Amino acid sequence: MSTNNTVKALRVKIPVSIFGIAVCTLAFILLLYTERIPSLSSRNLFKFKPCTKKKAVNNKRHISGDRNVKNTTFNYAADDRFEFDPEECSPVHGKWVFNSSNKPLYTDRTCPYIDRQFSCVKNGKNDYDYSYWEWQPDDCLLPKFNPEIALRKIQGMRLMFVGDSLQRNQWESFVCMVNTVIPEDQKSMKRGRVHSVFTVKEYNATIEFYWAPFLIESNSDVKIISDPKKRVLRIDSIEKHAQHWTGVDILVFNTYVWWMSGLKVRSLWGSFANGDEGTEELDTAVSYRIGLKTWANWIDSTIDPNTTRVFFTTMSPTHQRSADWGNVNGTKCFNETKPVMMNKKHYYSTGSNKEMMKAVAGVIGKMKVPVTVLNITQLSEYRVDAHSSIYTELQGKLLNQTQKEDPLHYADCIHWCLPGVPDTFNKIFYAYL
């Protein structure tokens, strides 16, 4: 083909590509901003030493991802991985194995605390296989989640999940996982728009959620501003939220997806009362790093590590581009029925921003207070099948039939069905507890 013909072909293709990206971006923003609000040592954040106790289990003994294994039970007797030890093994590297005996501790019908946004089966999803996949690290065994032991670990304490709707996803999962063993007269739930508290009277414990999607203060914390260009972040201010975190025994933070609405973020030094004075447009990754430093400075200056444990959940990836995992004819995560099976230890889609990951590693790695990182990004990358997809709600209403037939704009490929992937987040959290 001649040079001129090549140039003409490119001129035809580029607008189509740009149009596709624009459509996906608008759909992402629509989904994100119209929703309801309701140890690995930080010093070794993304670097893991090899297993020294035993060799990794032979990969051939793992069940494959084929659908013909759906009634197979994993043979634990033949498994030579050792028990989880945070000093010896990382839960990051492993694979998803279909295990029909891996019954969830709850369903979205038996646990009354799940938002309708995450209640996929109740909302019409009739493929239950997504809840039977089990994460198996390469070299070690994650302990089986025991609700009684989990409650004993937090007895007399306040456990608080802090962050965005994905952190609320994880909080509701944890509440539902322990709820199964608590008598009705020994528990209560108080839901708030910003702060929600689940109380376990018998154990004198609370499992709480605090809504702070950026951790730092913004003008879109409670009254959601749908237009990202009108949102302003006070990247040097955190006290408005942080005053509610003091006195908490176990803090579990996250922040990521709310930052990903554009290449620039309007950032403010000073007070909102000053209007646009002091506002500056910064690259998202730069603003994110500054915001994380503000959070880290508060932790280092306020938290006593002898009385409070601090965790940070890494980014939960979005699955907006099916071509990332080889389904070129797919529509985001819609109609995906099994995890991505790739022979890669470091598979990342366009839904995980590596620059943001480096920011987390860089900031937490320099903190004085130890922060246990719950690195859930890699294992979540494979789970394109476990999102809410079209079995969700928008602005407090279930998707209607017309919306369900338009997954490009309405499929939720950010949040997870419950029970589901967040249960694995909590199994890893439980292992560190």
UniProtKB/TrEMBL annotation:
- Cite a single Pfam family from the UniProt record: PC-Esterase
* Major subcellular location class: membrane
Keyword Transmembrane helix included in the entry's annotation: yes
Gene Ontology, cellular component aspect: Golgi apparatus; membrane
Which InterPro entries does the record cross-reference, listed alphabetically? TBL (IPR029962), TBL_C (IPR026057), TBL_N (IPR025846)
Q: Which UniProt keywords apply?
A: Membrane, Signal-anchor, Transmembrane, Transmembrane helix
Entry membrane topology: Single-pass membrane protein
Q: Does the keyword Membrane apply?
A: yes
Molecular-function annotations in GO: O-acetyltransferase activity
Residue spans crossing the bilayer: 12-33
Q: Where is the Trichome birefringence-like N-terminal domain?
A: 87-140
* Subcellular localization, as worded in the UniProt entry: Membrane
| Trichome birefringence-like C-terminal domain residues | 142-431
Family of this protein: Belongs to the PC-esterase family. TBL subfamily.
Tell me which PANTHER family the record gives: PROTEIN TRICHOME BIREFRINGENCE-LIKE 3, PROTEIN TRICHOME BIREFRINGENCE-LIKE 9-RELATED
Name of the protein described by the UniProt record: Trichome birefringence-like N-terminal domain-containing protein
